[in-house]
Amino acid sequence: MRRIWTVGALMHLTLSAFAQLTPPERQGLADALFLSNLEIGNLTAQRSTTGPMWARTAIDDPLMGQEQLTALQTLAGQRNLPQLLAHVRTKVVADSDSAVPAKGSEIEIPGEVPESLRPSLQRLIEALRQSNELVRLALQKLTSVERRTLIEALPRQAVGNAPIKFDFVRQPMPENQIVLDLVSRIDLASLRTAGQHLAQAVQEEIPKLREAAKTAGLAGIAKLNIQGFVVELGGPGDDSHSDTDAVLCIDLGGNDRYSGRYGAGVGYSGVLIDLGGDDTYESPDLSIGAGVLGVGIAYDLGGDDRFKGKSICFGSGICGVGALLKEGGDDDYRAMSMSQGFSFHGIGLLLDTKGDDQYRVGLLGQGSAKANGLGWLIDKDGNDGYRSGGILESAYFEGLTVSTSQGAGDGPGAVGILSELTGLETYNGGMYAQGSGRRGGIGALLDQKGNDAYTADRDAQASGAQQGAGFLWDASGDDLYTLRSGNGHGFGHDHGVGFHLDSSGNDLYAAHDSRPATASANGLAIFIDVSGDDRYQGPPGIGEIARGGGSIGVFADLSGRDQYAEGLADGRARAEPSWGSALDIAGVGPRIEIPDAPKPGSKPLPDDASMESIFRRAINDDRVAIDELTAIGEPALRWILAKELSDSDPSVVSLAVWLATVLGESAESVCVAAIDLSKEDQARAAIQICQDTGFRTASPKILAALEIPSLTNAAVRACGVLGLAESVPKLMALSDSSNPQTKRLSILALGQIGDERSLAVLEPQLDSSDPNFRRAAIEVFVKFPARALAKAKSMVTSSVEKTARTGIELLAAIVGDEALQEVGKGLRDPRRGVVIQSLLALDGRVPKEFRPLLINLRKSPDPLVSAVALRIDQGR
Description:
The protein is α/β, with parallel strands linked by helices. Helix content is 34%, strand content 22%.
């Protein structure tokens, strides 16, 4: 057995390392809460009582939840499909690394298979075998009858009372507890590992298959049985695929039609790879990137495609993993239910990289999840339209339909996310949509760029109820938010959370019962609009008293010339005794700093009890308490470092860094003295404080800490940030550490310091698979241009494409005409990767003699090369 490890540098990231609320946003929120005698710390509470801890955290601490979702949005734009599956598996669900079965005997490929396709076919069948073994292990506590019971019961349990029938259902519906007991006997972590492992194999074979397709000479469809695996191969022509038993289908191109079951796993694993063409999918239930008690992976690489399916399709995982990657093209997705990024006790992912797309689903889709599932739809580029609903009528509101879509989570541990990266989008949903979480679930709609229009029935657009949380974040654009009924724009009910954040643009908010930031039955509603001239129909900031306690509804519009139909006016504030508050700051932006900041040393140090009270309020972002600490000055810092310092509480470290920064040089000796190497927790925290404040006089203690195993990593990190050249010999030794984290930090620190001695360690990292290591080596090399140029020249001639590309990266970082001339030669290289790397390196500075080559490359038959070349500016 071998271990499956995380993918590249991705897995070294932590969610909290990504974007938080900006200082203006956080200050505006704090000011709005201050109106009701509340503070940011009051937003954190134990609301959820069921579901896994990784989901409950976002509900109990919505600001942390917003950070986590922003992190996922960032990753959505940077990572490929297997990397995203890996991140969900290891960082969101927090699975431990799982064992992947060892390779079996060599797969014998029949002679009728074209020679160029055989290596990839062997690799993919072996990956399917390994994935199937993981699936077998995951299901080993279930009999075949019990597996069939779950296969038929789980989809019906997910759709509830909706009038949806499934092709494969024959048995009566078992009792709910029987289903839950059977699910509890499944090793879901092994299924998630199988999904990541299989997707990684497919991802790695795609370039090889594209190359092999050029010489395969395959015509029509060939169906093979290779050691028990039914394989279907399609040539580059227009093929019709209608089988239901192929576990591996590879089509080399053409305008194809799919009416069978492909890229699906029902108690096993299945893969579909289509290398391009304008394809049509008319799929039955459970097909095209669908896994039920298994794994289904589908890749369609190019073309304007039409996806029409029933249920459980196009990125749907039910007690399994289902994923569909669609590369480019203007596509149309239509399905009845459980589609387009849906999951129930598993992972369902749809990743569309580019194109003006249309998405339609009746129920449960477009980033939707039921209990313990993560459903995620990612659309990276294009002007897209989303429509959902129309199947299940609301039992309570006439004329409205339930959709549970477009970023919706329903049930404990359910996380449904719709990520849109750029484009002009139109969203139209029913009830429970566009950032809706209920019954312990989390729903999020995240839109980064474009002028967008959001329309839904109700309980949508940042709505959370019954211990659920709904998040809606729109980063830019002039947006329209409308609800046919109400309960949105930041709505929290029954211990639920609604968090609506619009970062910029001139926006309009309207609903039949419009009240942005409304909380009831001990719920929490947060609404922040950062900038723009906005229009609001209803009164904002409503909190209702219930169950002997309050409900927090906090509204903050932080800039712009805004208009309100009722309840508020531009540049005004209001608050209610029931914890409803609303603040509108007129003008160009919110207040970030307090004009009359207290002078350090203007207040004496109080007794310990008083200091403890001030400190506790300060770490919860109480502005008055922070002012008091500033006024006390250096004695307050000494007290914090002596009484409260520990690396286990990052808020203490952050407060100490802030106070030390305010105090400046006078704080340096105090912080350095706090590095007591005999007290490890305190020392780690103090080292970080000196690191973050730039206090270099701490270097002797930091160097000493390098020799203490429990402090080594903290010290290594500080050496890099502070640029301590005297640490280079020790860091070079640590770069060969058996501890992966120590090794990683040491290499990165050497890159930050930039000492020539470190090239002995960093030079081999130019061939590392870790891009951060390569970047560290490049950053040091370019400080020594002669060595860098010589090294780069040797690399670009390498027969290994990745090495040659890294050589181009190194040349691009060197300032000088000679380096550009060497880069220009790469435009003639026969390898597409080297050509692309050279194009990127020459953007805005193409030497005149290479400009004709650039013009020719814009007409390249390779779509990836031409796409890059068309965006390159030759410069003056």
